[in-house]
Amino acid sequence: MLRIDGGPTRHGRRDFLRVGSLALGGLTLPQLLATDAAAAGRLTTGKSVIFLFQHGGPSQIETFDPKMTAPVGIQSATGEVQTKIPGITFGGTLPRLATLNDKFSIVRSFTTGDGNHDIKPIVGRDSGGANVGSLYSRVVGTNNPLTGIPYNAALFPRAVDPDARPIIKDFGNFEATGGVGGAYAPFVPGAGGDLQRDMQLSLPVDRLGDRRSLLGELDRVRFQLDAAGKLEGLDKLREQAFSTIVGGAATAFDLSREDPAVVARYDTAPLFTPDSISRRWNNHPHYVENAKTLGKLLLLARRLCEAGAGFVTVATTFVWDNHSDINNAGAEEGMRYCGIPFDHAVSAFIEDCEARGLGDKIMLVCCGEMGRTPRINANGGRDHWGGLAPLMVYGGRTRPGQVIGQSSRDAGEPASEPMRINNLLATIMHTLFDMGELRVTRGVPQEVVRAATAADPIPGLV
Predict the structure, then answer these.
(1) Cβ(450)–Cβ(417) under 8 Å?
(2) What is the model's pTM?
(3) Which of 216-225, 227-236, 302-311 has the highest mean pLDDT?
(4) What are phi and psi of 150, to 5 degrees?
(5) Whole-angstrom distance, CA of residue 318 vs CA of residue 53
(6) Which option is the CATH number for 46-192+255-453: 3.30.70, 2.10.270, 1.10.287, 3.40.720?
């Protein structure tokens, strides 16, 4: 990959920014500049998807299906709040989203199939073991040829906070590519040693304005490519390098370029101080980190989509695992720690996209790997549950203001046709791709075809 080694800056450690594909084991440069652009224009809709993965498994009851007519012990531990749509209520920690629910839809019959800690909605059997963004990238290429932005990115807390912990991969690797090839792995800003290492520009970000230095570094790369038999196409990159790097990729990842008022509206850090979250729980550092970074991660995701990214994964770690055990707070307290930042960040994102006219261009998907037991346990928490899980979808020209499907009286099972992960993936694929073109185009990998056609999209959304 051709990357910029940003080195230390006043904004914190900046690892590497890919601006093109020169990977010896991946796409060649001419393929990036020609094939990728043609594929993106012909096969895609021009929309982007942000997948906010609620790691740990959020409760369907304390989020979008509070069941306040059920007995105590089943009904929402946080109460309910009336939404903008008459007769529809959300859990009590989602008041801002309740005022915006005419802008998005929820699915009350969504089931992930089991109560295991993993990342199956985003990397699992239905996606062929690949991050869904890698399926997209396999069709359109690795980088947007006009801006240099990676088509497929994954944002974890370190993307906005260099002191954050590494993402936990014990329950699944968000960077997995299944059978489509390692060249299509998500770009992970802040990941350091996890990035593929094959080629980099040793050029500090503060010298990007020096065209002579930039082109000098590209000449150094020329010798490496010549020796590897990969020289063809470099002149075109050389011509585009300055406008590509300075005009798009170098700025999209830098939140200091954003309007400070917009950053403040997204920022979830002021919602909690570390001492306001009980240190009784071993998950305390993750609660703090989630509150500190979630809003800025969604803002960064919006910036990347504006700059040409097609699929962006956003995740923090296990804050939704509300058992009330040694590690995790229970249903009521845990929803304060994870529900309040979620409500704030997602509401800011929706309001921002609406104000910018991006509602049709960007789809936001919010779900976790499972839901929670209908009945609260003896310690005040809810345990793992695969029978029903919350799902929220905004934007991308999906139909807003809907409640799709119904749940059983205790919110434990679908009471209407179940919507499964393969239905969600089909919805995402129909949003990203022109399905008519995709079906008739030769050479589309089977992993992509299966994800797009193995099930119907969620009825009424697309």
Answers:
(1) no
(2) 0.85
(3) 302-311
(4) -60, 135
(5) 10
(6) 3.40.720
